[in-house]
Amino acid sequence: MWGVLLVLLTFLFRLPAFLNFGALDSDIAVVGLQSWHLGEGPSPLLLWGTTYQGVTAPVMARLVELLLPLRASLAVSSVLGHALLVLCLYGVLRQRLPSMWAALAAACVAVCPEPLNFLSYSAFRIWAFTLLFAGLYLAERSARAGAPARRLLLAVLAGAAVGLGYYTDLFVLQLLPGVVLYLLGWVWEPRASRWLALGGTLVGFGLGSIPRWLARMEAPQLSELSWSNLKHNWPLFWSKCLPYVTGTKLFATTTGFDRPEQVLEGAWLVLAVVGMGLFVGMAVAGGLLSLAPGTEWSARRLAWCGAAWVGVTLVGFLFTRRPQDVMSARYLVPLLLGFPLLVSPVLARLPRIQGTVWVSVLLLPVIAHFGVAGWRGYGGWVDHGLPRITPEGNGDDARTLLSALQQQGVEAAVADYWVAYRLTYLWKEQVTVAPGTGVNRYPPYPRRFASARRRALLFSAIVPGSRYLVPGPWEVRLRREGQPHERLTAGPYEVLLLK
């Protein structure tokens, strides 16, 4: 029952994302586009335009689209991954805690602040985390299996899930040290030797890593770490990204690009203070209890895993050059994913008779704080606490533009990166739009533009600083080159038709 409730909570919390399926950005749309062209592209085992992400997300998007041909199927495929992650987390915790306690701890990830919530419906990363948690769940089942053959089989499957997760997104690299600590705690558990199962886990990891080796993916190097990066990263970490990922600051967007800060005040401020106080206090207590002699090994190894995720994440953020702006808060989401594991020794120490009251007191304010921060993080998709469908979210702008282009016989177009793949996906490639800026993720689109008989340039004021912001400078250039063209307006877009 608790697992069903967690799945329902996970999906209902993403209702604004489902209703605004059309407001996806191009990074998300690429996953949907590649799901229609599996096996194509210069590197069939890589997500288009990347060297660090596999094709797990496009494969899952295609499967969901075939089974559930909904307009929001891409978002559904991503949230499905998050729901499975929550279920695996619940399954891991339930091995040691009562079902209700495990469900409350897992709910801290089912609802979450915007940086993790965005990943939960954005398709391109969540499946990597899901596979990692599936590996932990299978490893816990293996640790408790009685028959050696069953223990070995589950261990191989656990290793394979972690290997596939690492292939899905090399971001998982910063979570692997935690998995290693977990396995060490698994092996050192006094009740029984796990060396055979550990060997099976390593074999499984090798099998799951085959796609990564075939794709020749290259992980980040330790040489990226440098003390010199701390001076740049610390202010960004302390004043923006850490508060953003924990929900104590909110940078909610209405267009996808502007992110004004929302001020915490009134009851929301009180909830944030209480929720974060409990979050930090339980995390510290869990880390300390994981070293205490009387802590059970099953809770100890989970806390080691969560603590390692926290430590490696902080080191990676503070001492590399990857953090650039407030959106770099996504690099800190393991702080949220590791929290239920890290606090498991705290929950395991509570008395079973009155423990439910204490668990509720400790976790419900955290869940409420995360829920409010994540819900308000939807920005323009929520109005007075209720989901709201925007014109872009419903795809009205795309339909208006497509109708205008088809009336003019346009076969292909060029636009800013953040516009191009979104329109191509929403139009189901009836008219393809190649990116005039950023990364060219799928070469056939520019080739189609080059060979099209009727072409267009698309301009949108939504992308600040873009070359395709306004058509004026392009018209001057086309006149100078003697290129015939015609200008028209279609909804929020300006169009230059090339003749």
Helix/strand layout:
Layout: H1 2-13, H2 15-19, H3 26-35, H4 56-67, H5 73-94, H6 99-110, H7 114-120, H8 126-144, H9 148-168, H10 176-187, H11 195-208, H12 210-215, H13 230-246, E1 250-251, E2 261-262, H14 266-289, H15 297-319, H16 334-337, H17 339-342, H18 344-349, H19 355-376, E3 382-383, E4 386-387, H20 396-407, E5 412-415, H21 417-426, E6 432-435, H22 444-451, E7 455-460, H23 472-480, E8 485-490, E9 493-498
Parallel strand pairs: 5-6, 5-7
Antiparallel strand pairs: 1-2, 3-4, 7-9, 8-9
Helix pairs in contact: 1-5, 1-6, 3-4, 3-21, 4-5, 5-6, 5-8, 6-19, 8-9, 9-11, 10-15, 14-15, 14-19
Secondary structure tally: strands: 9
Task: Categorize the overall geometry.
Answer: globular
The number of helical segments is: 23
Query: Which stretches of 5+ consecutive residues score pLDDT under 50?
Result: none
Radius of gyration: 24 Å
Head-to-tail CA distance between termini? 62 Å
Beta-strand percentage range: 5-15%
The level of helicity is 55-70%
Query: How would you write the strand order of the largest sheet?
Result: 6-5-7-9-8
Kindly name the structural category: alpha/beta
Tally of distinct domains: 2
Biggest β-sheet strands, sense, barrel: 5 strands, mixed
For the residues shown, what is the average pLDDT? Answer: 91
